Amino acid sequence: MHSVALSLIELGALFFGLGLLGRLADRLGISPVPLYLLGGLAFGTGGLLPLEGIEPFTTVASEVGVVLLLLLLGLEYSASELVGGLRRSWAAGVVDMVLNAAPGAIAALVLGWGPLGALAMAGVTWVSSSGIVAKVLADLGRLGNRETPAVLSVLVMEDLAMALYLPITTAALAALGWVAGLRTVAIAVLLLVVVLVVALRFGRAVSAIVESPTTEVFLLRMFGIALLVAGVASQLQVSAGVGAFLLGIAIAEDTAENAVRVLAPLRDLFAAVFFVVFGLNTDPSQVPAVLPVAVVLAVVSTATKLAAGWFAAHQIGVGPPGRWRAGAALVARGEFSIVIAGLALTTGAVDPGLAPLATTYVLLMAVLGPVAARVVEPVHGALTRRLRSTPA
Amino acid sequence: MDVEVTRLPGIGTKQEFTTASGRRLGVLTHRDGHRELLVSGRDDPDACSASVGLTDAEGQALGTLLGAPNLVAQLQDQQREVEGVSTAQFPIGAGSPYDGRTLGETAMRTRTGTSIVAVVRDHVVSPSPGPDFVFRAGDLVVVVGTGEGLGQAATILEDG
Q1: Which residues from B are below 8 Å from A130, CB to CB?
Q2: ipTM of the assembly?
Q3: Domain boundaries defined on chain A
Q4: Chain A residue closest in CA terms to B47
Q5: A2-389: which CATH architecture?
Q6: How far apart are the first and last CA of chain A?
Q7: May I ask the CATH architecture of the domain B59-159?
Q8: Which Pfam families does the entry mention (chain B) (predicted)?
Q9: What digits encode the pLDDT tens for the residues A243-267?
Q10: How far apart are CA A303 and CA A320, in angstroms?
Q11: What is the pTM of this model?
Q12: Tell me: the pLDDT tens digits for A29-56?
């Protein structure tokens, strides 16, 4: 009985502590993700409170966190939005991928982590945090700006690309070999196409499986089917998160809205556990060693994101100030960089140094992103004025 | 006029048009239904200098304010041949003495020689309201008469 009491006290302290960190993040106007990671670092090796006996819970809970993060991401977008985005802005998506995957991949190769490490780090620096970006745009009153559709379409393209990138990475990390690897990727592509077609044609039917007039039944069905799909996807080596993401896309719009409403609190709870567990598994004493690399990566990948956003906004005919605003809005990296790093680390196929590097990098970028979005206008204005006033 | 509709994935739908003066005006409808009025910036037409959240009632009030002049313009059009007669619209403010009282109590015709020909409330036009029509704050009263009479009518509706 003693162990149950102890577990409850530890969990209670953990969640209450996270609540305090979340409040602090709110006060500072930043995403809570970096603070959760810091919390994890503090509780880990040589931390304030050694957490013992709750690992079975936190392990499962953090997996559920990833599933819910990706499920709600899928629910955010309808299939028609994804297909429309793909048609209109594939070029911006490709430029974004090439520019932003490169810094991570090159850093991993320089550090001697091999092609697998490069694949994982490419994902870490590539994907912007859609959560932070959407919040920053709303906070700064830029939702109505003309460059905002370009920013959102880059996010949409990244998320669609995740549906392919995650299974590819899973297959590569599991060292499945070429044939099995290609099979996994083929399954993922096929699933993505099938889901998009099904969602566009028969979205109602999928929603009918989970629809229920009472919130309680709806919540249980939704949560249940998400875990079932994630589990089956994981069994097929497609990665649990991708299964959940595709399920989210397949659910029709008004059901999706209700689902987001009931699942968002659960997502916040389990995702917080996921970030803490990631922090727990990171050895804080390794952070100073990777700090220089993380800082260089932060600087370089801020520049490449600026360029990617600039290009995306240029594509839809937005003027120079809007192009820089689009670039700066996309700078933030967050939850998905950690999801990708977590995926890579669980297989044990990459250098363990990836954990402190990804943590430090996300800590920097989650804070730097919103700052970049804020200062881009005054900085751009000042630079333009100086250029104009300097006689040629 | 071209109203441009843009879907914002994960956020909602934006409908906007460009005015003759070159500013973009639009409405952003969030997925949860709440709306924002958007006005583009003067220096940078791609940016928004204002985005104002509107409740349903506020959106309706704005629509009435912008839509009602059409009615006045139409009435003015019809009365163009009558020399010296014009049409005006006056709001019943929250502090108006006639908020909650009837049209008959204003004794508008007797006191000013003008006629109340319509009342606009929540987008709906009540044509030729009778003497027992009860005014409410937010109503727009459309009055026809001489310039002098209209001035007096405005004072009556405001201060009694």
Answers
A1: 10
A2: 0.74
A3: 2-389
A4: A145
A5: Up-down Bundle (1.20)
A6: 80
A7: 2-Layer Sandwich (3.30)
A8: KhtT_N, TrkA_C
A9: 898 888 888 777 888 888 899 999 9
A10: 16
A11: 0.77
A12: 778 888 888 888 887 655 555 666 777 8
